[in-house]
Amino acid sequence: MLPYLQETAAGVLLQLRVQPRSSRNQLVGFQGEALKIKLTSPPVDGAANKACCAYLAKLFDLTQSEVELVTGGKSRDKRILLRGISLQKAAEVLRSHL
């Protein structure tokens, strides 16, 4: 279906390419098989990771604890687990914001 979304038993995995130090937090499209997201936070002391999880929690109407960084803590390429959301709902939310 969508290469940047994967349904798991725990929720939905989202493949991201993060661009830190942007002028605003926003989804901007695709880069390869990943969804590209721009964040205002710098990639220092996990600030961009925290901002990314907070932005996605707000975007998908989830709590902060339902959004978990799975891989990519020190990389621009990240995998985020969205708990308590279906693949269909995640796809709808992303389509409405791109």
Structure characterization notes:
The chain has a single domain (5-92), classed as 2-Layer Sandwich (Conserved Hypothetical Protein Mth637, Chain: A). It is 24% helix and 36% strand. The chain has two helices and six strands; from the N terminus they run E-E-E-E-H-E-E-H. It has helices at 47-59, 87-97; strands at 5-7, 11-19, 26-31, 34-38, 67-71, 77-83. Strands 1, 2, 3, 4, 5 and 6 form a six-stranded mixed beta sheet that branches. A hairpin with a 5-residue loop joins strand 5 and strand 6 (77-83). The model has no long low-confidence stretch (mean pLDDT 94).
List keywords for this structure.
6 strands; 2 helices; alpha+beta; 98 residues; 6-stranded mixed β-sheet; 36% strand; single chain; Conserved Hypothetical Protein Mth637, Chain: A; globular
Could you write a compact summary of the structure shown?
The chain is of the alpha+beta class and 98 residues long.
Number of helices: 2
Order of helices and strands: EEEEHEEH
CATH architecture: 2-Layer Sandwich
The major β-sheet equals: 6 strands, mixed
State the domain count: 1
* Name of the level-1 CATH class: Alpha Beta
CATH superfamily: YggU-like
Distance between the amino and carboxyl termini: 17 Å
Would you tell me the structural class of the helices and strands? alpha+beta
Rg (CA only) = 12 Å
Mean model confidence by pLDDT: 94
What proportion strand?
35-45%
Helix content: 10-25%
CATH topology: Conserved Hypothetical Protein Mth637, Chain: A
Which blocks of ≥5 consecutive residues have pLDDT under 50? none
Overall geometric form: globular
- How many beta-strand segments? 6
